[in-house]
Amino acid sequence: MAKLKWGMIGGGEGSQIGPAHRLGAGLDGAFEFTAGALDHRADAGRAYGQRLGLATDRAYGDWREMLAGETARDDRVDLVTVATPNATHFEITKAFLEAGFHVLCEKPMTMTVEEGEEIVRLSETTGRICAVNYGYSGYSLVRHMKAMVARGDLGDIRLVKAEFAHGHHADAADADNPRVRWRYDPAQAGVSAQFADCGIHALHMASFVIGQEATRLSADTVSCISSRQLEDDAMVNLRFDGGAVGRLWTSSVALGRQHGLTLQVFGEKGGLRWAQEHPNQLYWMPLNGRLEVIERGAGGLSPEADRTSRVTVGHAEGMPLAFANIYADLAEAIRAGKEGRMMDPAADLYPRASDGLRSMAAVFAVAESGKAEGVWVDARPPMYR
C-alpha cells in the first residue's frame, strides 16, 4: 500500500512538540514526511527540513510558500500538521482547508469562538478533515475507558473528575523568563493561561471518555503569583448534556506534580481511574466488587484498546505512541475517503474541529465565570446552543 504524503508547518529544530509529531506520523509507515515549513526563519526552516530528509524543493521557507508549492503539485501532501504559535493556527488551517488539504491542528485550534465556528463550517463544506491534536485521547487505556462507558459497564455516569496540574511555573522569579511570561500575557495568550493551555486537555478527555459535552460551568480562577495577569490555577464545576457532573482542576503552581493529567469516572455500577504518568494501568472498581487493575496489552480488552496498543504488555507506553494512534486514525479516515468505503469504527476516534470549537467556548466561559466570582455560564459555542 502506497504511503500517504505528510507535511508539517512549525515544529522546527528545538521545538517541544515537533519530534513527537514526526515520531507519531512515521511510526506505522502510513505517512511519508514529504514537505515542511518548519521555522519562522526561512533559511533555518529550509536547512532543517533538508537535514530531516526533505527534498530541496519541498523544504519551504514559510507556510504561504508551502501552500502555493503543494497546491501546484500533482503529488501534493495528503495531510498537513499545523504546529505553529497559537495565534497563527486559524489563518493557516483556514487557508489549507480552503485549498483542499486535510489538516491536523495543534490546540487551541483558534483564538476565538467565532474563528472556531468558521473552521467547523469550512471543514463541513469542503469535506476536508480538520482534526485537533488532543493527543492524550490516543492512549490505549483511555480508549478502553471510553469503550467501557459506551457498552454500559459503569451504568449511568454520575461524576467525572479531571485534573491537569503541574508545578513547573511555581517560581515567581520566572516572571521575566520569556518561555513562561508569554503564557500569562493577555496580548499573547488571550483570555486564559492555564485553563487554555492544560485545562482544555482535561476537559476534552472527560468528554471523550463519557461521551457527553459540557453545557454549563462555574469557575474559580486565581493568579497565585500576583504579578501574572492571567490565571495559574482554576477549579471548574461542570454540567454535561447526558446528566453527568464534572469537577476539573488545573494548575501550574502545584509543586510536586509533574505532568499531572488524570481522569476518574464514577457511574452507578462502577468507577474508573487512570493517570497519564502511569498509562499502562487502569483501575476499575465494580459496585460491591473488588478493585481490579486492567493492564494495557492484556487479553480480552476492547477493539479500540487492542488497535492502539503498540508494545507488549508490561512495557511502557509513551506520548509519541499516543500521537501515533491519532495519526493512524487519520490515515484510516483519509484512505477510506479515497477508496469510497466506511472507515474502521475502532479508528473513528480522532478529535474533530467541533472538539476544538467546544474547547474554545469553554475557555471563554471559564474566563467569564472567573471574573464574575463563579457565576454559572453557558459553556457551549453559539452554533451548538
Secondary structure topology:
Layout: E1 4-10, H1 18-26, E2 31-37, H2 42-51, H3 63-71, E3 79-83, H4 89-98, E4 102-105, H5 113-126, E5 130-132, H6 140-150, E6 157-165, H7 178-181, H8 186-189, H9 194-210, E7 214-222, E8 233-240, E9 245-251, E10 261-267, E11 270-275, E12 281-286, E13 292-295, H10 303-307, H11 319-339, H12 353-371, E14 377-378
Parallel strand pairs: 1-2, 1-3, 3-4, 4-5, 6-9
Antiparallel strand pairs: 6-10, 7-8, 7-14, 8-9, 10-11, 11-12, 12-13
Helix pairs in contact: 1-11, 4-5, 5-12, 6-9, 9-12
Mean pLDDT: 96
Order of helices and strands: EHEHHEHEHEHEHHHEEEEEEEHHHE
Strand fraction: 15-25%
Overall number of domains: 2
CATH topology of the largest domain: Dihydrodipicolinate Reductase, domain 2
- Using the coordinates above, name the CATH class of the largest domain: Alpha Beta
**Based on helices, strands and strand pairing, what is the structural class?**
alpha/beta
The N- to C-terminal Cα distance equals 43 Å
For the CA atoms, what is the radius of gyration?
A: 21 Å
Determine the CATH superfamily of the largest domain: Dihydrodipicolinate Reductase, domain 2
Bulk shape: globular
Largest sheet geometry: 9 strands, mixed
The low-pLDDT segments are none
Named at the architecture level, the CATH assignment of the largest domain is 2-Layer Sandwich
**How many DSSP-defined strands?**
14
**Strands across the major sheet, in which order?**
13-12-11-10-6-9-8-7-14
Give the helix level as a range of percent: 25-40%
Number of helices: 12
Pfam families: GFO_IDH_MocA, GFO_IDH_MocA_C3
Domain GFO/IDH/MocA-like oxidoreductase: 142-273
GO molecular function: nucleotide binding
Organism: Roseobacter insulae
